[in-house]
Amino acid sequence: MRALLSPFTLRLSAAADRAGLMVAANGGVAAVEFAMVLPVMVLMYLGMTEMTFGVNTDRKITLLSRTLADLTGRATSVSSTEMDTIFAAATSVMSPYRSDQAKMVVSSIVVKDTGQKDAQSKPILKGTVCWSTARGPGAVALAKGSTVTVPEGFQTADSSYVRADVTMAYAPVFGSEILKMISGTSAINLSEETPWPVRNVKEVAWQGTTPCLT
Q1: What's residue 170's pLDDT?
Q2: Residue range of the domain that includes 189
Q3: Which of 99, 105, 134, 207 has a C-alpha 20 to 30 A away from that of 91?
């Protein structure tokens, strides 16, 4: 009976030894865990990189809009040639990002009293485009004489201010296809509108035309 049980006992003991070795063999656990976490880490890295690019581009567009408005507001009068110089100088702030796709519009807005009053007996003011010029692919200037909303801080009758509008399509570096699947477009329009006071004159006039404030 002992002789018959010995081979079985030996096989059982060997199986137990192998099971013990399998339990103790955890050398590949780290590799498996890393393989599971790696895709998540890559997605997080690409997402953070993409967000950084997008935020920096948006800040550059804001800076470009403010620079356009500031440079124009310092002038006493402008012409098409002088505005070319201002546009060229202002776009340098976009570096190292591209500015050739930016749509830029600079306008002179005059504020006048309509002669009417609102419910609080305050005068109703109207902003009117005196002149407007645009640069960039597809950029359209505001129509002369069109009405615009006057922002807070510029609501003074018989005054003027410069308004700069910048719009640019931002295409994500890594997520353009994902964005296209979600929204149907592979780019996001980033824009900035900047009202800016004139510095040295009552109105920045367009050379060769009659000023809108008399």
Answers
A1: 83
A2: 30-205
A3: 207
